[in-house]
Write a structure and sequence with these properties.
The protein is α+β, with helices and mostly antiparallel strands. It has a single domain, classed as Ribosomal Protein S5, domain 2 (2-Layer Sandwich). About 30% of the residues lie in helices and about 40% in strands. It has 3 helices and 5 strands, in the order E-E-E-E-H-E-H-H. Strands 1-4-5-3-2 form a 5-stranded mixed β-sheet, with helices on one face. Helix 1 runs parallel beside helix 2, helix 1 packs across helix 3 and helix 2 crosses helix 3. The chain starts with a strand and ends with a helix.
Length: about 140
């Protein structure tokens, strides 16, 4: 894990600062797109979820010192930051944990699952259940 500084050094132990919220969310991978396009002025996408899940945990801290995240999940870090921005809480510190058994770059939607789970977990850690539309809006800033 790497500490991503937001202007101050991340404390060696977040235990100095009690978490103000935590949440864990799972999101499935997919087996390709079955159909996509526009219908009656609305874009749509139909996918087939598979029994592989990204599991993301978010802990939030008032210290605002930085975000600790896995080095191999830059999109999850972007999603966490974008969600904090969306909710007006960018000053918070965080610890992000991502577990995803899906192979990368195989068309299974592994990074999309990471991003969606990160957005939902960040919202829940702040006591907010984001709507699917809000999750999509934030996700599109990370994965257009």
């Amino acid at each position: 894990m790497t500490a991503h500084s937001l202007g101050r050094d991340l404390p060696s132990s977040q235990k100095e600062f009690p978490a103000i919220g935590r949440a864990t969310v799972r999101a499935p991978g997919v087996c390709g797109e079955l159909a996509q396009g526009m219908l009656e002025q609305h874009y749509f996408l139909v996918t087939c979820p598979i029994d592989f899940y990204a599991r993301v945990s978010v802990e939030l801290y008032e210290n605002g010192a930085g975000i600790q995240s896995p080095d191999n999940c830059p999109k999850s870090l972007q999603a966490l930051e974008a969600t904090l921005d969306f909710l007006g809480r960018r000053c918070l510190g965080a610890r992000l944990t991502v577990s995803n058994p899906m192979p990368r770059s195989k068309g299974l939607g592994s990074s999309s699952a990471d991003v969606a789970a990160t957005i939902a977990a960040t919202g829940l850690a702040l006591g907010r259940e984001l709507t699917p539309e809000q999750v999509a809006e934030i996700a599109l800033t990370v994965e257009p």
